[in-house]
Give the backbone structure.
Amino acid sequence: MESVSARLETVLTLLSAQFRSMPESKLLGRLPDGRSRAAAGHELAGLVALAAQGVEDRERREPPSWRALPFEGPFVVGDQIGVTGHDLLAACERAAVDDEAVVTVWMSPGMGGGRVGCAAVLERVLWAAEGLARVL
């Protein structure tokens, strides 16, 4: 069975490529929930960025000051998904190497908040990424 991180890497790579190849009309086209594809992709990239921040700031005693991912337009959403995905997976890999015990990280308030295992964060992001892939 493929690991959660490998599945997440696969789906984020595919989504990134899909968004990079979409014409403007499709990027601005609406999904069943009313959001544009670009907005939905940016929302996913923002979720991934917050997850990466929670892993990177895992040693803080208090939750970090969460940073929002800026929206730079519909044509950069694919790059944002790719870069934030790479950052998250690299941060989790470093955390696993640095910490011999179970790695606990900060989860952003939008994902439930508090401290959780790194695997729980990856599963939450994977769930969101697979959900977006299904509706594109």
Q: What stands out?
A: The first helix runs from residue 4 to 21.
